[in-house]
Amino acid sequence: MEAKSAELISAPGNASRTALFLRACRREPVPRVPVWMMRQAGRYLPEYRALREKHAFLEVAKTPELAAEVSLQPYRRLGVDAVIVFSDILIPAEAMGAPIELGDAGPVITSPVRAAAQVETLASFDPERETRFVGDAIRLLCRSLGPDVPVLGFAAAPWTLACYLVQGGSREGFPAAKAMFLNEPRMFRKLLEKIARATAVYLKAQIAAGAAAVQLFDTWAGELDASTYRDFELPATQLLIDELAAGDTPVILFSKVTHHLLPSLVRTGANVLSVDWRMDLAQLRKEFGDRIAIQGNIDPTILLASPEAIVRSARDAVRQTRGRGHILNLGHGILPETPVENALAFIRAGQSAPLEDSSEPHAETAAAPVN
User: Is the pTM of this model over 0.90?
Assistant: First the structure.
């Protein structure tokens, strides 16, 4: 099955979405904010549901043509400013030797990692062999979209992947993972180091395949207190980003419920912090200035409200940052019950949001061309 050629949906400043996205990541002046949504390829789209009726989740993720087709669906339908490859954060876990089962109900590690011997047997892997399907999907997307639309790669951050490896699936609080770092801190650090090094190689392959930026999902970082994050996850994430050596390719770090971790998050080496709706964007900008770009932070449930509420929320988020170093996104994944027209309203509201409250253009954000 060939990925269908993507048709450009008109949007302000769409001469080069790639240049727009990269300028935002680098905190450079932009004519408007770029906009995309986490989990934008998913169950809220009828075309995705139709494809999933014929193909299992892992079949889609591991078949480059299917993964590329699903990745393109929100671009065709909504005109988003970035296309993230369809995959799953547990793909590297399987490549390291931990069998997985995936579906819309959630991931399962069939043999949880609970002992030192299991940590030792987790292997590094060659992403051009064991997970080549991810790189091939990115290559298909780049060929279909051309240079003017950014393709995003992604992976889990070390702590979040460790949560699933140790717990065996999703469970509130991830008590098995916490018990491991409390009782066996040396073993847990070894696990995080293995994940960090393997993930760096995995993301290198995605960048080599054409990814314009990569996102690390540390979805469960908020489960850690500040000192535990500093002791365990911060050095592991720094190692990953150092080993990745992404150069000009931006690294985005997503987390949620992590206001208490902000001083450490800005030290990870990420270029962009993706934050949830509990964060005050204006306060973030005031506190960290131009040290780091920001992505987020609309509550996904707002997309279940009226179009007027969606527009207000999008414009308010942009107003708080004045569009400088800001990628508009949700604070977590789009909800499956979201009406497609509401998702479209959010994308269009962000793409047309003024960067200033006043009629006076800000000296650093006025009419910078995108080329």
Answer: yes
| Residues with active-site annotation | 39, 43, 52, 88, 164
Residue spans of the domains in the chain: they are 14-21+32-277
**Cβ atoms within 10 A of the Cβ of 260, count?**
12
270 within 8 A of 253, measured Cβ to Cβ: yes
**Which residues have a Cβ under 8 Å from the Cβ of 194 and sit 6 or more positions away?**
96, 119, 122, 124
Distance (Å, rounded) from C-alpha 85 to C-alpha 154? 8
Distance CA 288, CA 125 (A): 37
CATH topology of domain 14-21+32-277: TIM Barrel (3.20.20)
pLDDT tens by residue, the chain, 371 residues:
555 555 545 555 456 999 999 999 999 999 999 999 999 999 999 999 999 999 999 999 999 999 999 999 999 999 999 999 999 999 999 999 998 886 556 778 989 999 999 999 999 999 999 999 999 999 999 999 999 999 999 999 999 999 999 999 888 899 999 999 999 999 999 999 999 999 999 999 999 999 999 999 999 999 999 999 999 999 999 999 999 999 999 999 999 999 999 999 999 999 999 999 999 999 999 999 889 999 999 999 999 999 999 999 999 999 999 999 999 999 999 999 999 999 999 999 999 999 975 333 333 333 333 33
**Euclidean distance between CA atoms 24 and 328, whole angstroms:** 10
Backbone angles phi, psi at 327, to 5 degrees: -110, 115
